[in-house]
Design brief:
Layout (H helix, E strand, L loop, with lengths): L6 H6 L4 H12 L3 H13 L3 H25 L6 H9 L1 H34 L3 H21 L1 H26 L15 H12 L6 H5 L8 H31 L2 H4 L3 H10 L3 H33 L18 H21 L3 H26 L2 H20 L5 H31 L1 H6 L6
Length: about 450
């Protein structure tokens, strides 16, 4: 006999504003902030700050759009659910696959970023980096297996510590900022800024992940906009503070060091910088990994419920339930990718850009769906968000081939499905209506 939760029991396992905001922050304020200042500075020099500002400003309509959609249509399917309502089941399936199969790539990238900082801060070697990567991933999957409410509480505590650490890093570095480090401001011109925006998108994804948690809120219509506003404010202050102080304090070193936050803390904290950097890396990495695993597991169950993945994964698709089978599949895929990436020495930039391309495609479909589903005021915001995400999608360049693979698979399956329906229809016409009526619901 299958046990089901009563509505009262399920409601007791829903997220409140604090836990929901913590998961949102974990999804958006992820480990990318540890590596992004370096990668953006390498692409555009001090002008990378322009890319940070533009992405922050344009992420506002995207965030508000997803909050509005989640409040109106709360479901574990997230963007796939919105796409189904706006464009049909086939677009929804492809959109869901983009996100679901990007989760193993993205969480591995996040774990590697955190592990590198921990290894640098504590003096560990390459083997230590691999070990820390595996520990971070295993801990996040274990926390999600314990339940979303548990992982939400844990994330709330860790995110509070993280925000304190990042504020300390900005405050201790600010007095040492030197104006001369901002010249020449744009050594690579607008092309460099565009390239910086492409890689920085990894630090601004997360709203599409948060949409998969919408049904887990106790009051989605009230809590989602508040959690989104709080997250936007905190992320904006921390991102800009870190971007300016990293360039202003480190200068050219911001472009060459893969661990700029460690150098930032070392300038102001001396010997304490190593342990503090390691702690910040663990908190950032775990927060993002935890949020994406939670979102991906719920999406997988919802896709299986709707027929876009094997039905066996559908268990736990209802709000408040644990999608254990979908979570287990994500764990297996992530473990396999970790082994391959370690053996073949796939670099971090490749993992991050591949993830960004998939999530940019998901975000584009989500905000485009909003332009059809929301009432006029929200629809206008969604149109702006759609234009913004299309530009970011274009900036992904050749990495758009990554989401093209599941899209092509979706088209192939859809075509095969239509052919199968046509064959069944012709077979039904051959046996006659009387036979079809008595054959049962499985025969068309």
């Amino acid at each position: 006999m299958v046990k089901t939760r009563s509505p009262a029991t399920a409601a007791a396992h829903r997220l409140g504003l604090g836990q929901g905001t913590a998961l949102f922050l974990g999804a958006v304020l992820g480990p990318g902030v540890l590596a992004m200042p370096h990668l953006a500075a390498a692409a555009a020099g001090p002008a990378s700050i322009v890319a940070w500002v533009v992405l922050l400003a344009l992420s506002v309509p995207v965030a508000l759009t997803f909050a509005a959609l989640g409040g109106r249509f709360p479901d574990g399917g997230g963007v796939a659910t919105f796409a189904a309502r706006a464009f049909g089941s086939r677009v929804a399936a492809v959109t869901g696959w983009w996100f679901y199969f990007a989760v193993p790539i993205g969480v591995l990238a996040g774990a590697v970023i955190g592990a590198r900082y921990v290894a640098s801060g504590l003096g560990l070697g390459p083997a230590g980096t691999v070990t820390v990567t595996c520990v971070l991933l295993a801990t996040a999957f274990a926390a999600n297996h314990a339940g979303l409410r548990f992982s939400g509480r844990l994330q709330l505590i860790l995110l509070a510590l993280l925000v304190v650490l990042l504020v300390v890093a900005i405050v201790v570095a600010a007095p040492a900022v030197r104006p001369g480090n901002f010249t020449p401001f744009a050594p690579r011109g607008w092309i460099g800024i565009a390239h910086a925006a492409g890689v920085l998108f990894f630090s601004f994804v997360g709203w599409e992940a948060a949409s998969h948690l919408s049904a887990e809120f106790a009051d989605p219509r009230r809590h989602l906009p508040r959690a989104t506003s709080l997250t936007l404010t905190i992320v904006g202050v921390l991102y800009l503070g870190l971007a300016v102080t990293t360039i202003g304090l480190l200068g050219d070193r911001a472009e060459s060091s893969p661990v700029p936050l460690a150098l930032l803390l070392r300038e102001g904290m001396g010997a304490l910088a190593g342990p503090v950097t390691a702690a910040a890396a663990v908190l950032l990495s775990f927060g993002a990994i935890n949020a994406y695993i939670a979102a991906g597991a719920r999406l997988g169950a919802a896709l299986a419920r709707d027929g876009a993945l094997p039905r066996a994964l559908a268990k736990g698709a209802a709000p408040g339930e644990k999608p254990g089978r979908s979570l287990a599949l994500l764990a297996v895929l992530t473990a396999a990718l970790t082994v391959v990436a370690t053996a073949r020495e796939i670099d971090l930039d490749t993992l991050m850009r591949a993830t960004s391309a998939c999530l940019a495609a998901v975000t584009t479909v989500g905000v485009a769906a909003a332009s059809r589903l929301l009432p006029p005021p929200g629809r206008r915001i969604a149109v702006v968000a759609t234009a913004f995400t299309l530009l970011l999608l274009a900036s992904c360049g050749p990495y758009l081939l990554v989401p093209a693979v599941p899209a092509a698979a979706g088209v192939f399956i859809a075509v095969r499905g239509r052919r199968g329906e046509a064959v069944r229809d012709r077979a039904g016409a051959a046996v006659g209506p009387d036979v079809r009526e008595t054959a049962g619901p499985g025969v068309r």
